[in-house]
Specification:
about 20% helix, seven-stranded mixed sheet, Rossmann fold, globular, seven-stranded antiparallel sheet, alpha/beta, Elongation Factor Tu (Ef-tu), domain 3, about 35% strand
Length: about 250
């Protein structure tokens, strides 16, 4: 983990409220693993006071990329920053998805939950037989589809709530069918809590090993503030230090 000031190389608007920010940090790029996250200090002053958590989307050489959605004041300020400006970054933080080889893996991403999933694909698509179920509210929120299609995964299943792209319905709709037909052994997922709860009902009785990267509000990112606790079968755990990746079956849903 390192706390450093980095220079923004680009902060591109993908569409509507989605942005891709890239900065240079050789340390973070070399150390980061799929599932790790960063804590960014958005302002040079104390407003907003708390850092904001962001999963790592991609690393390339010395570059680190973050894909984010503007949902509040902090991300709004971040979206207005330009190339050459500095931000304070703490990370990489948290644990990561298991590093596996020669496995049949189903990745499930809902909306902005594609971030750690995309990072996993970039690192492990050549080592495993990977399938991806990717869903969002509409086609405007279903980004990086062409990049994913060219990433070396075996098959991509797209879903939108309104049917504007892919199959109309939820990303969890065909999970059991895919697991059975493709003989999936591992599932890695990330998305909104309601989606993950539904997903757990679908995979709970299968023979797969299921891991989930939890989305949570965080104040510090390293276990000091206790704002991101989650109830597990072994008691309460902190998403920032005990996660964000957990065995799905260990969570008290």
């Amino acid at each position: 983990m390192i706390d450093e000031k980095v220079k923004i190389e680009e902060n591109i608007k993908i569409n509507e409220n989605f942005f891709l920010l890239r900065f240079t940090s050789e340390y973070i790029s070399q150390k980061a693993k799929p599932g790790n996250f960063l804590m960014l200090r958005i302002s040079k002053g104390n407003d907003p006071f708390l850092r904001r958590p962001f999963s790592i989307f991609y690393t390339d050489g010395k570059n680190v990329s973050i894909y984010y959605k503007v949902v509040g004041r902090g991300t709004k300020i971040l979206s207005q920053m330009h190339s050459g400006e500095e931000i304070d970054v703490l990370g990489p933080l948290g644990n990561s998805f298991p590093e596996i080889e020669d496995k049949k893996v189903l990745l499930i991403a809902g909306g902005i939950g594609i971030v750690p999933i995309y990072f996993f694909i970039s690192k492990f698509s050549s080592l495993n037989e990977i399938y991806l179920s990717y869903g969002a509210s509409n086609s405007r929120e279903l980004n990086f589809v062409s990049e994913i299609e060219g990433s070396g995964i075996k098959e991509l299943f797209l879903y939108t709530d309104d049917g504007s792209e892919g199959k109309k319905g939820f990303v969890t709709s065909d999970i059991k069918k895919i697991i059975e037909e493709k003989e999936i052994k591992y599932t890695f997922s990330c998305g909104p809590t309601p989606m993950i709860k539904t997903l757990f009902k679908e995979v709970g009785n299968t023979e797969t090993f299921n891991f989930v990267s939890l989305e949570s509000r965080m104040g510090c990112g390293f276990g000091a503030c206790n704002t991101c606790v989650v109830k597990t079968k072994k008691g309460y755990r902190k998403v920032c230090v005990d996660g964000p990746v957990f065995r799905m079956e260990d969570i008290e849903w």
